[in-house]
Amino acid sequence: MKRALAALAAVALLTAPLAGCSSDSKSVTGTVIGKDTDYECKTKKKNGKRTRSCHTEYELTVRTKSGDEEEVDVSNSAYSSCAEGATYPKCTTR
Description:
Blueprint: H1 2-15, E1 30-46, E2 49-63, E3 69-74, H2 76-81, E4 87-88
Antiparallel strand pairs: 1-2, 1-4, 2-3
């Protein structure tokens, strides 16, 4: 029972910082004027072994009504759904 509680507490501690992460962290509305992807890799060394972790980040550039350009990190599905010229964030909900 103590192990189960300790494991549950450890999971809660590790996931708490992720609670604020979402693709809608910025409340930006406007027209999509650009799309970009970044492929990033990190190398970690653990127990004398090197491991490589890679992921793709998806980003939309949105022009707001005031004319400002904002870069918004989005999910893969939102990136695929939003074409240049589409209205963001409406294009993410199909």
